[in-house]
Amino acid sequence: MSLPEALRRRPWVGWVLCAVALALLPFLVEAGLGRTWVRILDFALLYLMLALGLNIVVGFAGLLDLGYIAFYAVGAYLWALLASPQFDLHLPFWLLLPLGALVAGVFGLLLGAPTLRLRGDYLAIVTLGFGEIIRIFLNNLGAPINITNGPQGIAGIDPLRLGDWSFGRTQHLLGVALPATHLHYYGFLVLALGTMFVCIRLQDSRIGRAWAAIREDEVAAQASGINTRNVKLLAFSLGASFGGVAGGLFASLQGFVSPESFSLLESVSVLCMVVLGGMGHVAGVVLGALMLSILPEALRHVAGPLQQKLFGQVLVDPESLRLLLFGLSLVLVMLVRPEGLWPSPLRRPEKQSDEATAAD
Amino acid sequence: MSLLRVEGLKVSYGGIRAVKGIDFYVGRGEMVALIGANGAGKTTTLKAICGLLRPVAGTVTYEGRPITGAPSYGLVEQGLALVPEGRGVFARLTVAENLLMGAYLRKDRAAVALDLEHVYGLLPRLRERRRQLAGTLSGGEQQMLAIGRALMSRPRLLLLDEPSMGLAPLLVKKIFETVSGILRQGVTVLLVEQNARLALEASSRAYVMEGGLITLQGASADLLSSEQVRTAYLGE
Asked: pLDDT tier at A356 (50, 70, 90 boundaries)?
């Protein structure tokens, strides 16, 4: 019996293989590329959660949000303020994660409520402003009463902790040493898979259909009896809460937050992941997020040495090269595959088959 | 008793007073046309009735209850359905998904499935194309789909906004035949049209709107032969 046949007979075999591969990944990556790369994987998983959250707003509900990173910032600073020496508070993660989702969700409502009547470019401008306002606030809340430490940021943030298990240092499980990077990988993986699951379920739900209707035609959606105000607000606040959770995890992973991590460029990067992967398609967004968070890092590690070898010196700074290739790849994708690299199979614009099949 | 009664309705749209105080009614089971030139305030009137715009003054009464300024989602539940102008269909959803969206508020799944069959029976082209994305349909099919979607909410009053817009004459004729069929099944229709002849031929009574006011009203047959309507709206 060949492997594909075995997979067809027992679909769970495929799932088990996937699970084993994902479980071994950090060890393989560490052995092959070094521990830095496990950390890059950790960040890729964070971006994945962020992109999935933004996909709810942009992909499902069709509301262009250019300030999404603000919710990431809210989540990160909430964790930083409540689990660091800043105010000498050290709340546990099981309180901080839901609280981050809640507070970011409220900020989502704050952004959503005044922008309900706006669409397209106008909405984009307002959300962009919102993102900048949050960042500037964080930058300036260092005085007269010091809350955020201003541009210096907050350091010494508590790592994720499960009971006595701190994700911040190496732990031993059944004789296997699990360094902090690996522990974070597993923790984030569980949350990322959970996020994917929730997104897929949401898309198929009544709410998901209402979002799709608003995205396609708002007046027709209203005429179909959809309470567009509530459904839009829900998209904003749900998307924001995903960003808030990712932000909290970011703070715990870094141990340090400062306003400069939450620039407009970050918002744009996350939006690029959604657009490049395939707006509204969960698998596509996952692909986009992984690609855009891992490939630039690969480039960073390859571009410098390669130039050194070829030309004897580094001609183009890898960081500028990264942005150049980033822009180039976006232009290319928009020209060749405007629906993204992996669009939802049903939603491709080409003519569908006319045949009427019996089953429905 | 009239199904819908509009009294002293004034609506502003984009800072302009588009409807300047109009009165009319629609009786149960009849088709009433609201005709007039582009910009006369017809669409604004429809939007105000179904809760998409908030009137400045006046009252709208539906089935004896005041519904002035009520949100659109509540009105759909009460059997008031709008077919928006310009064939508002959900372009990147399939035909079947579009139709089911019309039943968004309904919980009675079995009845929804029956109604879907009923709509497919009424509009067979939609059955053939039910797996196709709505955006790939022709203009006439999209208009049919918009009507079919409205029917899926089981309306007692159907508000039709410019169903003939941008369609070839043959298709327009088909759409009007479909609407007449819907009327025969007991659904009351309020039709907004620029194509005065078609609207007057299909309806039993009509109101002529001009500059936000109703200038003429009466039985459609009488209007069709009136000198004023013939010169201004029928191009004779």
From this structure: very low
A57: distance to nearest CA of chain B, Å? 17
Closest Cα of chain A to B222: distance in Å?
A: 33
Q: Does residue A299 lie in a domain region?
A: no
> In this structure, are A221 and A178 located in the same domain?
yes
Instruction: Give pLDDT tens digits for A38-58.
Output: 999 999 999 999 999 999 999
Whole-angstrom Cα distance, residue B118 to residue B68? 32
Chain A residues touching residue B136 (CB < 8 angstroms): 349, 351-352
Strand extents, DSSP E, chain A: 83-84, 89-90, 154-155, 161-162, 165-166, 171-173, 176-178, 256-257
pTM for the full predicted model: 0.89
Q: Parse chain B into domains and list their residue ranges.
A: 2-232
- Chain A touched by B127 (CB under 8 Å): yes
pLDDT value at position A355?
A: 38
The rounded distance, in Å, linking the Cα atoms of A39 and A34 is 10
- Give domain status of residue A96, yes or no: yes
Strand bridging mode B80-83 / B157-161: parallel
Q: Is B70's Cβ below 8 Å from some Cβ in A?
A: no
| Tokens found for residue B66 | 């005041």
Hey, are the CB atoms on B136 and A351 less than 8 Å from each other?
yes
Report yes or no on A289 lying in a domain.
no
Q: Residue A352: which of B76, B100, B131 has the nearest Cβ? A: B131
Looking at domain B2-232, its CATH superfamily turns out to be: P-loop containing nucleotide triphosphate hydrolases (3.40.50.300)
- Closest CB from B84, B96, B131 relative to A223: B84
Domain shared by A23 and A155, yes or no: no
B150 in contact with chain A, both atoms CB, cutoff 8 A: yes
Domain that holds residue A104: 36-263
Residues A40, A121 within the same domain = yes
| CB spacing of A220 vs B135 below 8 angstroms | no
Q: Do A220 and B127 touch (CB under 8 A)?
A: no
- Chain A environment of B96 (Cβ under 8 Å): 360
- Residues on chain A touching B114 (C-beta within 8 angstroms): none
Q: Element (H or E) spanning A331, and its range?
A: helix A318-336
Cβ distance of A216 and B91 shorter than 8 Å: yes
Is A223 close to B50, i.e. CB distance below 8 A?
yes
**pLDDT tens column, B165-215:** 889 999 999 999 999 999 999 999 999 999 999 999 999 999 999 999 999
In whole numbers, what is the pLDDT of chain B averaged over residues? 93
Distance separating alpha carbons of residues A56 and A280, to the nearest angstrom: 7
Residue A3 has pLDDT above 70, yes or no: no
Alpha-carbon gap, residue B13 to B56, rounded angstroms: 10
**Looking at the predicted complex, does its ipTM rise above 0.95?**
no
Query: Do A91 and A164 reside in the same domain of the chain?
Result: yes
Residue B209 pairs in a beta bridge with B36, B214
Q: How far is B57 from chain A (nearest CA, A)?
A: 22
